[in-house]
């Protein structure tokens, strides 16, 4: 199987980085292949610009976006690794979705309606949160990835989604983090 890892965390010493390394080890141990898109390392420009819209109207895509779209196209499973900040993904990941999952690539909308174009893919979400789940539930939010699962992935045709939400990461002991890492699946 071919995977595309989309990684969005700026700190190479973070638990998210450890998750990324664990995922790569799992992929290698299974003999699978992967490509890595490390958004912060690549200094990905997340702002959807007027030039992006003009390019889309002219049925063109810049080279960086074309490369990312090819990596997504070549993969059977997309693996997203990121923290939840302010109840959503980091801005760099949101911008990546805005720019890469564009009309004509991830979906088509015309007189016949909306057509998802990535229905041949599955996805794995591994997200970290800073607080205890019980604390966050007090605010009435129990699904911190619904915007990603329903509003993005389902919309473009990806319905087979493995979602792992890892809570209270900053307050965990080394042993608890190790156990969390051991329980990650792809």
What is the gist of this entry?
The protein is of the alpha/beta class. The protein has seven helices and seven strands; from the N terminus they run E-H-E-H-H-E-H-E-E-E-H-H-E-H. The protein has one domain: 3-Layer(aba) Sandwich (Rossmann fold).
Core attributes:
186 residues; alpha/beta; two-stranded antiparallel ribbon; 37% helix; 7 helices; Rossmann fold
Architecture overview:
The longest helix is centred in the N-terminal third of the chain and has 15 residues, at 15-29. The chain has a single domain, classed as Flavodoxin domain (Rossmann fold), CATH 3.40.50. The protein contains seven helices and seven strands. β1 (2-7), α1 (15-29) and β2 form a beta-alpha-beta unit. The protein has 186 residues and is α/β, with parallel strands linked by helices. The model has no long low-confidence stretch (mean pLDDT 94). Helices cover 37% and strands 22% of the residues. The protein has a five-stranded parallel beta sheet, sandwiched between helices.
Give the helices and strands, then pairings.
Elements: E1 2-7, H1 15-29, E2 33-38, H2 50-57, H3 63-74, E3 77-83, H4 91-100, E4 107-110, E5 113-116, E6 122-128, H5 133-137, H6 146-154, E7 160-166, H7 174-182
Parallel strand pairs: 1-2, 1-3, 3-6, 6-7
Antiparallel strand pairs: 4-5
* Mean pLDDT across residues: 94
The helix content is: 25-40%
How far apart the termini lie comes to 11 Å
CATH topology: Rossmann fold
Rg, alpha carbons: 17 Å
Look at the structure and give the CATH class: Alpha Beta
Secondary-structure element string: EHEHHEHEEEHHEH
Low-confidence stretches: none
Shape descriptor:
globular
How much beta, percentage-wise? Answer: 15-25%
Number of helices: 7
Number of separate domains: 1
For the report, how would you describe the main beta sheet? Answer: 5 strands, parallel
